[in-house]
Amino acid sequence: RTVVLDLDLRKPKIAQYFNIDNKKGVVNYLINETTIEDIVYATEFENLDVIVSGPVPPNPSELLMNQRLDELLDELKKRYDYIVIDSPPMGLVTDSLELAKHVDATLYIVRHKYTHKNMLSFVNDKYQRGEIKHISLILNDYMEGRGYGYSYGYGYNYGYGSYGNGYHEHVKKKSFIKRIKNKFKSN
After folding, report:
1. For a designed S-S bond to 160, which of 10, 49, 55, 93 qualifies (C-beta 3.0 to 4.6 A apart)?
2. Which residues lie below 8 Å from residue 142, measured CB to CB, with a gap of 6+?
3. What whole-number distance in Å separates Cα of residue 3 and Cα of residue 82?
4. Rounded to an integer, what is the distance from CA 148 to the centroid of its chain?
5. What are phi and psi of 121, to 5 degrees?
6. Which helix (DSSP H) or strand (DSSP E) does residue 95 occupy?
7. Is the distance from CB of 8 to CB of 55 less than 8 angstroms?
8. What is the DSSP string of 133-144?
9. 2-6 and 106-111: which strand pairing?
10. Quick one: pLDDT at residue 41?
């Protein structure tokens, strides 16, 4: 049995992936408004449950340091073989580092030509210091042999409201003409 727990409280996505209403979830549990039974949702997949984040709180980092999170995770360990935690990208907010102490392994998703290299240095530094353990990188969106007619936009569109347009500065996409010129320069 596996449960997916959406602890990206700033920009939750799990509810929409599973087509679940995000009105009640882990946030409601952490502020003592509901029970575990009320926030666990069965999915169409056998032995896979989901706990969505619930409403976006004004204090996500504080909630993740709440003792109720420890209680939730302890109870989930009794009920499930695997707990998969979705968190914000590591290094952009403190939430992921706070959650790292609860996990046995860390999967860091790296999007080809999208994730900034300095984020990998940050993750490597945290690993070497022992702040994260058993880390594996997953390379996502790699395309080999792109020919003419294809382009790739750069930027990071994972924004958190008051944190600006995204975790990283938005890099303006080059115009079509500049991309064509660069293509001929590189040949």
Report:
1. 10
2. 112
3. 6
4. 33
5. -65, -40
6. helix 95-100
7. no
8. -SEEEEEES---
9. unpaired
10. 95
> What is the 8-class DSSP label of residue 162?
G
Q: What integer pLDDT is reported at residue 149 of this predicted model? A: 47
Report whether 44 contacts 50 (CB < 8 A): no
Q: Using an 8 Å Cβ cutoff, are 99 and 84 in contact?
A: no
The answer to whether 19 and 99 have CB atoms below 8 angstroms apart is: no
The token duo for 28 is 């409601």
**Amino acid, single-letter form, for residue 156:** Y
Tens of pLDDT, residue by residue, the chain (187 residues): 999 999 988 888 999 999 999 999 999 999 999 999 999 999 999 999 999 999 998 888 888 888 899 999 999 999 999 999 888 877 666 776 677 777 777 777 778 877 777 788 877 887 888 877 787 778 888 887 655 544 444 444 444 444 333 444 445 556 656 666 665 665 5
Dihedral, CA of residue 18, residue 19, residue 20 and residue 22, to nearest 10: 100
Cα 95 from Cα 101, distance rounded (Å):
11
| Site of tokens 């499930």 | 80
